[in-house]
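REQUEST ID: PR-0412
SUBMITTED BY: lab tech R.K.
PRIORITY: routine
TASK: structure prediction, single protein chain
INPUT:
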Amino acid sequence: MTFSYPRSLFLLLSLCLAINTIAFGGNFYTDFDILFGDKRADIQDGGISMSLALDNYSGSGIVSKNEYLFGRFDMQIKLVPGNSAGTVTAFYLSSQGKHHDEIDLEFLGNLSGDPYLLSTNIYANGKGDREMQFYLWFDPTEDFHTYSIDWNPQRIIILVDNIPIRVMHNRENIGVPFPTKQPMRVVYNSMEWRLLGNKMGAGED
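STATUS: complete
OUTPUT:
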């Protein structure tokens, strides 16, 4: 199936790494590499903002130069309006390898007039199956909103505009894998989407 995407997806970076009470700001020029898509990833405004474009040939993505073990990561994102069916816009943390760790936020595109769906998931030692999806209480195409991952050894909190929408506690003491040992990179991309399961809900696990 072929899609036509003349539009771009825009984001503004506000990256905070809370490590030993020291906060570091972010810049796309100094802190990120182009993962794929070449010029479809367009850094602007001296490195404080950028657009990611998806067309008939390729999507685009960026990845942080550094890896991080714990911290808070904030992205200010404005999604593309109109028909976005067949696309996924993703902001996530990920390590490498077969037994990788990952913390996902994915925006699943829809037909014009239908709401975006925010899908969250966590992988630890390569094991996932903890997806939970949310309908947002606002239109994410009208303005920038802040999406956050707050990760420490005890829990992971997913926040939207500083409002927690999901808390994932460390339950390694009862045999549930949790990401505590593998540093992860920050990734943001836009591309065609795969069909995902329908696990709707809110809250805590």
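NOTES: Residues 28-31 form the longest helix (4 residues).
REVIEWED BY: pending
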